[in-house]
Amino acid sequence: MSDRNLSPELLEQELASLRQEVATLKTEKAAFEVQQKLLENLVDLEHSSAQGEVLQASLQATLDLVTALTDAEKGSLFLLEASGKVVDAILSRAEVTPKQRAKLIGNVLDRGLAGWVCDRREIGLISDTEHDTRWLTLPDQPYTVRSALAVPIQRGEQLLGILTLLHPEPDHFSPELARQIDLTTNRLGLVLENARLYFQLRQYSAALDNELETGRQIQIDFLPDRVYQPPNWELAACFHPAKQVAGDFYDTFPLGNYVGLAIADVCDKGVGAAFFMALMRSLIRVFSGQTQLDGLSIVTGEDRQLLPKLSSQTQALQAVELTNQYVAQNHWKLSMFATMFFGVLDPATGLLTYINGGHEPLFLVNNSGIKQTLNPTGPAVGMMPNMKFGIAQVQFESGDILLGYTDGVTEGKNTDGELFTPQRLRSLLEHPAKSAGELLTRIETKLFDHIDRAIQFDDITMLAVQRL
Q1: Rounded to a whole number, what is the distance in angstroms from the first to the last CA of the chain?
Q2: Which CATH number is 332's domain given?
């Protein structure tokens, strides 16, 4: 049938239907634009400096947009968790104390329009508050309300929030406008869900940061309060963890007439490596100070047969084999080990007796450059039981500096992914250094200039020992 054969009544019906479709499409378009704008605002807020206020700012932006869309005078927005408890809210009253705020929210949800909507999960439209029992007039209310519209914001079956709009004149909100806002709030569900999830993520992240900070403080307690300084020697160290907790450690401590020197790198990162580091450091200290272990059950009689009878200076180095044996037998399920250099220095003679358990080579340098390289004398510590570790010695002369470091130095990356490399490190050792501290400062400066704005990938630890 052509349009010419339609009666005026049918044509009017067709036009009315088209007008309704156009109105619906316009409403859907407006709702989509509101959703898009709010999502853009949320993304901007997440990248702003005020990240701690993302949730409040998202709620306020949501309320502002819908208030402008409806020409409402005021409004409020409650964000709810699954139990119905209010997580956060923007109230129509701007300045209230926390106690007043809690009381207002409680009254509105118990006896007001928002509570009615929360119970029924349907639109609440009040044309005139003076003739509708759902409206709760609050004491000392600083503004006039004659018409109100409250809409549930849902995501699937879950009620995420309640939006309430207010106006001082009656009949401001029509049923058609209510349907439009209902459609808009369905779009807002995604925005509020994202805002709430982001808020929860921030809470979890803050809690994790607190735990990591506690771990960092514990780890710092395991490092020396100060670098031990025997007479006629200078010892210096630096420690730059890649994260709040680290798997590197260094240690300097007296052993009778000798000095214990250690630097190590656990084969992992994060909290697990940090606790393993604390274990390794403690074992080295305990075993080097009491290698006979009388009355202790950590090492069995069979294990003691692995340890040769050594001179007084080298007895403390048995700590490396004992640590390896204990870790490999008791913590093998963790599959964690550490590269470790442990040396015992006689400060009177300058003789250093050491074990290098799979660690980076150390360098003994003088005014002419690298004098001697202290390569590994055995495997990493804790990989397998019954491992043998060779013992070596090096003699310090006056002015000599020994440099120990972890692979975070040579493997430091810049923004292009280029490594600092052992070659760069060795080149810095070819020039004389007045002191152990000056040598570390020189290396730190060049290394962090190289890393620049790149994220530090690994822990950076160095230990320098100079005979004066």
Answers
A1: 109
A2: 3.60.40.10
Determine contact, residues 279/248, Cβ cutoff 8 Å.
no
How many helices, marked H, and strands, marked E, lie in the chain?
11, 15
Tens digit of pLDDT for each residue in 203-258?
Answer: 777 777 776 666 666 666 667 888 999 999 999 999 998 875 567 889 999 998 99
- Please say whether the dihedral angle defined by the alpha carbons of residues 378, 382, 387 and 388, taken in this order, is positive or negative: positive
Task: Say whether both 128 and 242 belong to one domain.
Answer: no
Instruction: Quick: pLDDT tens for 125-170.
Output: 999 999 999 999 887 788 899 999 999 988 888 888 899 999 999 9
- Say which residue the tokens 């200078």 belong to: 234
Same domain, residue pair 198 and 228:
no
Q: In the structure encoding, which two tokens stand for residue 64, read together?
A: 């502002």
- Same-domain status, 297 and 340: yes
Burial 357-384 (b: 16+ CB within 10 A, else e): bbbbbbbbbbeeeebeebebbbbbbbbe
The type of residue at 355 is I
